[in-house]
Amino acid sequence: xxxxxxxxxxxxxxxxxxxxxxxxxxxxxxxxxxxxxxxxxxxxxxxxxxxxxxxxxxxxxxxxxxxxxxxxxxxxxxxxxxxxxxxxxxxxxxxxxxxxxxxxxxxxxxxxxxxxxxxxxxxxxxxxxxxxxxxxxxxxxxxxxxxxxxxxxxxxxxxxxxxxxxxxxxxxxxxxxxxxxxxxxxxxxxxxxxxxxxxxxxxxxxxxxxxxxxxxxxxxxxxxxxxxxxxxxxxxxxxxxxxxxxxxxxxxxxxxxxxxxxxxxxxxxxxxxxxxxxxxxxxxxxxxxxxxxxxxxxxxxxxxxxxxxxxxxxxxxxxxxxxxxxxxxxxx
Length: 332
Ligand code: AQP
Description:
- Keywords: Aminoacyl-tRNA synthetase, ATP-binding, Cytoplasm, Ligase, Nucleotide-binding, Protein biosynthesis.
- L-tryptophan binds at residue 135.
- Belongs to the class-I aminoacyl-tRNA synthetase family.
- It is an enzyme of class 6 (ligase).
- It catalyses: tRNA(Trp) + L-tryptophan + ATP = L-tryptophyl-tRNA(Trp) + AMP + diphosphate + H(+).
- It is a single chain.
- The chain has helices spanning 17-33, 42-45, 52-69, 86-95, 100-104, 107-116, 123-137, 151-168, 213-221, 239-252, 256-262, 268-294, 297-326; strands at residues 3-8, 35-40, 76-80, 143-145, 176-178.
- The protein is globular.
- A three-stranded parallel β-sheet has the order 1-2-3. The protein has a two-stranded parallel sheet with strand order 4-5.
- Helix 4 runs parallel beside helix 13 (297-326), helix 7 crosses helix 8 and helix 10 (239-252) packs across helix 12 (268-294).
- Strand 4, helix 8 (151-168) and strand 5 form a beta-alpha-beta unit.
- By secondary structure, the chain is mainly alpha-helical.
- The chain has 13 helices and five strands.
């Protein structure tokens, strides 16, 4: 079975619709066909200021949401990044192979540091994509299911894997991004020119899966469309409507063409009312299941402990190979 690996930050508490449709949904599907490793990337979360109590709670909450979304610990390896020390260890090695200019070209860092002010941004935020390289290479992943915003980081991972292999001998699998065209980028409901994101979106533009379903329905109903009235997919001319169609289609399995037909001659209001209902049907059981997993922290922690143990076996072997190739003297 080919191997996949991906991660999600425990920063915001609730996952948003972009996280789910862009990434987590694919994780659930891929555990059936792939040797799948998924993690809550708490070491990435500390690249921006964090409250310790919230971080710990959000790490469990992220794991609970992943299980609620359909990850099955018997079908995939689910763990917390900091439980596997090899991530930080290989991260350092990768830092030593990355050019300063190369890291400086990462657009996510440029955006985020510009927002925070470059003096407030940490070196950790700067090298975050390099830690991500280590996350992926440790597991010899063939594919990395992520949203479009991560494409550049997967490119960096490929470059560094090839660089290491070229310099020190074949060690790492060169991974490919696994990004779906339809859901690789879910847009903000109020500003369909930007991606839905916890840091850039306004509350009205962002759908958090754990929000009150009523509030979610309201956000869908007040989503920005356009002054035209035709319900048609056209990402350039009609980004708002197209975003709603993508979300609708993915959640129900109806194709965009089928939806266009279904809403022919109807008003935007009809589409939004129906999509609001689809969303409520999706988030209501998701919230309940998340609460159930959270209500049993012992089981949750033992799932994560088993996952970490399994992950460590793979990660330790890869790290040992990398250290050996690098010429680091083994400890007696
Ligand atoms: N809008 C999106 N559309 C599709 N995929 C998305 N992802 C994020 N936003 C969208 C994908 O979700 C996965 C987890 O991302 P993350 O750990 O970076 O989560 P986040 O920090 O909550 O994501 P945000 O909202 O994008 O954070 P900020 O605002 O800090 O940049 C990834 O696979 C990501 O591609």
